[in-house]
Amino acid sequence: MVKIPINQKTQEPKKEPKQEPKKEVKSQAKSEPSYGAKDIYVLEGLEPVRKRPGMYIGSTGVDGLHHLVWEVVDNSIDEAMGGYAKNITIELLKDNRIAVTDDGRGIPVDIHQQTKKSALETVLTTLHAGGKFGGESYKVSGGLHGVGVSVVNALSTWLRVEVSRDNTVYFQEYKRGKPEFAVRKNGKSTHTGTKVIFDADPEIFQKIEYDRKRIIDHLRQQAYLTKGVRIMIVDERGDEPYRYGFYFDGGLKSFLSYLIDGETSIQDESFYVHKTYQDIEIETAITYINDQEAKELSFANNIYTSDGGMHLTGLRSAMTRTLNDYARKEEYLKEADENLTGDDIREGVVSIISIKIHEPQFEGQTKARLGNPEARTAVEYVVNEALKEFLEKHPQDAKKIIEKNLIAAKARKAAKAAKDTVLRKGALEGLTLPGKLADCSSRKAEESELFIVEGDSAGGSAKQGRDRRFQAILPLRGKILNVEKSRIDKMLANKEIRSLVIALGTAISENFDITKLRYHKIVIMTDADVDGAHIRTLLLTLFYRYFPKIMEDGYIYIAQPPLFRVQKGKEFQYAYSDDERDKLIKKMGGDGVNIQRYKGLGEMNPSQLWETTMDPATRLMKKITVDDAIEANRMFDVLMGELVEPRKNFIQANAVYAKNIDI
Fold first, then answer.
1. Which residue stretches of 366-455 are H helix?
2. CA-to-CA distance for 3 and 6, rounded, in angstroms?
3. Residues 197, 99: Cα–Cα separation, whole Å
4. Which one-letter DSSP state was computed for residue 289?
5. How far is it, in rounded angstroms, from Cα 559 to Cα 610?
6. Residue 18: pLDDT above 60?
7. Cα–Cα distance measured from residue 39 to residue 22, given in angstroms and rounded to the nearest whole number
8. Judging by beta carbons within 10 Å of its beta carbon (0-12, 13-18, 19+), is residue 185 exposed, middle or buried?
9. Residue-wise over 579-606: b if at least 16 C-beta within 10 A, else e?
10. 527 in catalytic set
């Protein structure tokens, strides 16, 4: 979660290209802007990257900053996938520099025939230059577009690359993408490999601060996906170096064990297959747990494809066909029974599919979806054959899986009946808004805000204090249902949740349509106490499990009401933390200062609530984002799921960090 002012503007690139002076033109009726050859700008070398960094790394915020690390690490991972590297080290150095070292072949340093520069300089200063576009240098690679290390170079104030090959150490340094000198020799070497050290440019990035946990989580995933590679993280920024390493021989089997840690698997043996079919290497691991959610991860050439693609489609298709065939063969399904659907098959499944393919076709630079049709065919064939064999060899596990599928089918029919009942009333289409909703007059979703308020008292203050033109208020009574433990039919039977679903306007489940969302700011506004925190958690669970697109698109916020009103005489200010309160007391002189502690929103009158928490000009909010979907899934399972032991362990481990606990 990132705390931001709600009216914060996106940082614009600071440098504009120089423009040629315009010649004076005699005006007719009115002056038209010129548009000739001189108005067409050609950005050479790495200039386009510095001009529009978001096109290459997504953003100039924290995501884009860490993307620089991933781009350099990807080159080392590609060497490991090719069997050339066994060790990769990532160092977080003082002064926020990053160093990535591998023991691969080392980037070539001989003269490139086309550019007449060394191959090393060509790779570091030319977009779409690298060993991944043709030939046999890389059978598979994640860096499909070849822009990785050159983009890092363009967006760094300083970069140094050291190459060990041919018994020699070579090096070169760059400033903002431009070489300081030609490649030089720096002594002898007894090994091969590449080391890249870079210093991200503060003119480009909003803040340069690397998150160690984020880096560890990303590299753990890469280690699972690349069997036999040793990855070491060294953080030199503190008083003492911090070291963390990964090495997994089990590949996806180890990854699956990590994902289901703390869960109850219904199987004695997980399904696993690792085969090559038609030059596509396929590895997948599957198990079922006592849960309703499906957890499916897909990777292509070690790149996480968050939107799936042909490889995930092939896995789903193979599972649905094979399990239906087995269920009919063993007479779990009678002749008159309808087939199990894909949703029935996926309920409670935890699956990982990873493929290595020579010519991956990703959709867009973010590579969120794989488009190769041959990947679907290959995965379907391999999983069909292997899963059929698994079910025959493990009949007890097969029985438990089919029984869970049948229970899911029964629940699906009950849920459909519940949804149809609501839909028949027209509620989810927004035709009948809940009576407790105080709607805004605007019908433009992009400017409309929905405040979800705890209790009727706070709801009353919010309704009176709001700007009725664009702010809507929906008061909730008490704590809503914990949807982590409930099916959709029970969830829709809950009056408070049903009111919220209707107010949103998007419908739910397979009927969900993000384009019908009625508000582009959905603000959770609860009391600053334990009950308020619990209600926030329940609402976040609801959004994460049933409206993930709303959360992913950045429409969910948490209001930050003040904790104190500090007054001396006629002067008063609001404090949002204990530290802020103490500073205000000191600033006001200490003696005669009156402090009011707000235990609930209902204690504020409408004008105070508007001034402190709802006015776009002065309020602070936390914007909810999901940076790591895998970890978010795990935490919702731990904190809101059925099992008590994982939650107990989490509380014991993190109790020391708890603050502002009501006694």
1. 373-393, 395-424
2. 9
3. 4
4. B
5. 12
6. no
7. 10
8. exposed
9. ebbeebbeebeeeebeeeebebbbbbee
10. yes
The whole-angstrom separation of Cα 476 and Cα 539 is: 11
Distance of CA 493 to the CA centre of its chain: 31
- Longest CA pairwise span in the chain (Å): 88
Question: Which residue among 283, 454, 496, 637 is the active-site one?
Answer: 454
Considering the candidates 380, 496, 527, 637, report the single residue annotated as catalytic.
527
The encoded tokens of residue 167 equal: 């018994």
What phi and psi values does residue 661 have, to the nearest 5 degrees? -80, 125
Residue listed under structure tokens 């079910």: 391
Catalytic residue selected from 531, 552, 615, 627: 531
DSSP annotation of 614? I
On whether the CB atoms of residues 366 and 304 are closer than 8 A, the answer is no
Residue indicated by tokens 């649905």:
320
Active site residue 529: yes
Task: Give the separation between CA 624 and CA 451, rounded to whole angstroms.
Answer: 15
Residue 123 binned pLDDT confidence (cut-offs 50, 70, 90): confident
* Phi/psi of residue 424, nearest 5 degrees: -60, -30
CA neighbor of 450 nearest in space, from 519, 402, 384:
519
Cα gap 413→93, rounded to integer Å: 56
From the list 47, 529, 552, 603, the catalytic residue is 529
Strand ordering across the sheet containing 564-568: 571-575, 564-568, 594-597
High-pLDDT (> 70) share of the chain, %: 82
Look at residues 298, 438, 458, 319 and name the one whose alpha carbon lies nearest to residue 388.
319
Nearest residue to 340 (alpha-carbon basis) of 364, 371, 316: 316
**Alpha helices, DSSP H only, in 553-605?**
578-587
Rounded Cα–Cα distance for residues 183 and 108 (Å) = 11
Residues 6 or more apart whose CB falls under 8 angstroms from that of 400 comprise 266, 267, 288
Give 342's pLDDT tier (boundaries 50, 70, 90).
Answer: very high
Judge whether 531 counts as a catalytic residue. Answer: yes
| Paired tokens of 589 | 């002189």
- Is pTM, for the whole model, over 0.70? no
